[in-house]
C-alpha cells in the first residue's frame, strides 16, 4: 500500500512539475519532451515521468511526435484569438458574478503581488503563477468547477501561443490587473467585467502589433473614471 501511495505521489509531483515547465514557457511550443532528461532534471524516476507525459497528452498540452516521443503543442494564431474571445465572455461573467464573494485579505495579497511583479522586465514563472491566481480566483470563489476547468483550458491555449511578448506587457498586465482588483474591491460588477474584457482585448491587440512588426506604446494606467 505504501509503495503504491509513493508511486501515486511521485506521478502527481511529476505532473505538477512538467505542466509548470510547459505553462511557464520553460518548455516552449514544439519542444521535444525527453523522458530521460526530465527524469534527471526533476530527480524523479522514469515511470512517474511517463505517467505525467501521458496525462498531459490527454489534456492537450503535449502531442505525439513520431512513434514514441511527445512535444509541447504549438498553438496557431487563429486558435489563440478565438480562445481570447471566448475568455472575454466567460471570464467577464465570472468576475461579475463574484462580487461580494472574494475575501478582502485575498484582494489585498493579490494587489501586493501584482504590484511587486509589475516591476519585472519580463514574464517569468512567478508572473505566470500570479496570473493564474488572479484569473482563476473568480470562478473558484463561485465554486463552479465547470467554469474553472474551461477557463484553465482556454488559458492553456493562449499561454502556449508562440510569440515574443510585447514590450512593456508585464507592466501593463499589472496596471490592468489592478483595475480588475479595484473594481472587485469596490463591488462594482459592471466595471469589473469591463476591466477584464479590456485586459484581454489589450493582449489581443498587442499580439497583433507584434505579428505585424509593430510594438505597443509605453504602459499607462487608465483613468478610474
Number of domains: 2
Output the CATH homologous superfamily of the largest domain: GntR ligand-binding domain-like
> What would CATH call the architecture of the largest domain?
Up-down Bundle
* Helix/strand class: mainly alpha
Share in β-strands: under 5%
Q: What is the mean predicted local confidence, pLDDT? A: 86
CATH topology of the largest domain, anyone?
Four Helix Bundle (Hemerythrin (Met), subunit A)
Order of helices and strands: HEHHEEHHHHHH
Can you tell me the CATH class of the largest domain? Mainly Alpha
Going across the biggest sheet, name each strand in turn. 1-3-2
Large-scale geometry: globular
Count of individual beta strands: 3
Runs in which pLDDT lies below 50 for 5 or more consecutive residues are 1-5, 216-225
Distance between the termini: 61 Å
* CA gyration radius, whole angstroms: 19 Å
> In percent, how helical is the residue content?
55-70%
Please describe what this structure looks like:
This is GntR family transcriptional regulator. It comes from Acidisoma silvae. GO terms for molecular function: DNA binding; DNA-binding transcription factor activity. The chain has 225 residues and is mainly alpha-helical. The chain folds into 2 domains: 2-72, Winged helix-like DNA-binding domain superfamily/Winged helix DNA-binding domain (Arc Repressor Mutant, subunit A, Orthogonal Bundle); 77-211, GntR ligand-binding domain-like (Four Helix Bundle (Hemerythrin (Met), subunit A), Up-down Bundle). 68% of the residues lie in helices and 4% in strands. It is built from 9 helices and 3 strands; from the N terminus they run H-E-H-H-E-E-H-H-H-H-H-H. It has a 3-stranded antiparallel sheet.
